[in-house]
Amino acid sequence: MADGASHRVFEGWPAWPRLSQALAARSSLWAVCRCGREAVIDPRPWVGQGLGRQATAHLETRLRCICGARRARLEIRGLAEAPTRGAGAIHIFR
User: Fold this and answer.
1) Statement: residue 88 has pLDDT above 80
2) pTM here?
3) Residue 72 domain flag
4) Least confident among 14-18, 25-29, 39-43, 83-87
5) 3-state DSSP call for residue 74?
6) Residue 38's beta-bridge partner residues?
7) 41 DSSP β-pair partners
8) CA 93, CA 91: separation in Å to the nearest integer?
9) CB 56 within 8 A of CB 15
């Protein structure tokens, strides 16, 4: 800006992926816990609740890991990026 202050557009910053992007062909939604466990998450129940336009970062507190963590990072991965193994130890809480 003219006065030297930075100008941020908060609508697009930060640009977290939306939940509906996990429904795209050849995409999958993965939860990653700090303990190292990873699990594939089915996004359809959340989309059915009308949360498809939510950023994935806003849904991370709705996950529970068997290690006791009350949050897990959500990632949208392509089929080539997804690991062949999944622990299945992270579940949707609400």
Assistant:
1) no
2) 0.75
3) yes
4) 83-87
5) strand
6) 32
7) 29
8) 6
9) no
From residue 42, give the alpha-carbon distance in Å to each of 9, 10, 11, 31, 90: 31, 29, 27, 10, 11
Q: Give dist(CA 16, CA 58) in Å, integer.
A: 9
Does residue 53 lie within any of the structural domains? yes
The domain in which residue 49 lies consists of 21-92
Whole-angstrom Cα Rg for the chain: 16
CA angle 19, 24, 26 (to 5 degrees): 125
Question: Does 50 reside within a domain?
Answer: yes
pLDDT in tens, 50-87: 999 999 999 999 999 999 999 999 999 887 676 666 55
* Residues contacting 1, CB < 8 A, separation 6+: 7
**Strand ranges of the sheet holding 38-41, from the earlier edge strand across to the other edge:** 38-41, 27-32, 73-78
Say if 67 falls within a structural domain: yes
Average pLDDT for the chain: 82
